[in-house]
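User: Hi! I have a protein structure encoded as tokens and I'd like to know what sequence might fold into it. I'm fairly new to this, so please keep things simple.
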């Protein structure tokens, strides 16, 4: 049951995925009247959608792993190092910034293309600046998923493993 409790640490990450998805929809609408900036805006909207889908996939994958493997040295390690809690904190911060960007973009919407392009120029850097922060969260989740996947593969091959406490100690020693 402890492993399932770990997944609760991803609540803000899922909320960020939802906010990112809403922002992507706003960006797509805005891009239709942003003149020459349309392509860049649509590209960032696609990145937001991909981020949102990737985060949701990571959540489902980790939930599935936790439901199948009640005792997991990897999950115990993740919990002991508060890795998901750190991602959760980072996600709260980025979610706030994504929501602010979404509001800013909504306020920029216009039917006049030149005006839309000029408005985009004003807020472009603050909106596109979210990308590295979102990528950091996505990459961290990817590493967690890959580590969990490796653990599953090792179990599937029925390789002998230490008990959860011994495995956590070994991971601590290697770090």
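Assistant: Happy to help. Inverse folding works backwards from shape to sequence: for each of the 175 positions I chose a residue that suits the local structure. Here it is:
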């Amino acid at each position: 049951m402890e492993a399932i409790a770990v997944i609760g640490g991803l609540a803000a990450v899922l909320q960020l995925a939802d906010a990112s998805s809403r922002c992507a929809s706003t960006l797509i609408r805005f891009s239709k009247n942003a003149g020459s900036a349309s392509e860049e805006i649509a590209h960032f909207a696609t990145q937001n959608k991909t981020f949102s889908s990737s985060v949701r996939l990571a959540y489902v994958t980790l939930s599935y792993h936790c439901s199948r493997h009640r005792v997991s040295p990897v999950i115990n390690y993740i919990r002991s190092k508060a890795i998901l809690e750190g991602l959760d904190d980072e996600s709260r911060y980025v979610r706030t910034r994504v929501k602010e960007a979404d509001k800013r973009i909504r306020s920029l919407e216009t039917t006049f293309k030149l005006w839309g392009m000029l408005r985009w120029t004003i807020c472009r850097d603050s909106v596109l600046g979210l990308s590295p922060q979102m990528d950091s969260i996505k990459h961290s989740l990817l590493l967690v998923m890959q580590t969990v996947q490796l653990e599953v593969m090792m179990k599937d091959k029925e390789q002998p493993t230490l008990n959860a406490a011994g495995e956590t100690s070994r991971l601590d020693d290697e770090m």
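A useful reference point when you look it over: The CA atoms of residues 14 and 72 lie 23 Å apart. Feel free to ask if any position seems puzzling.
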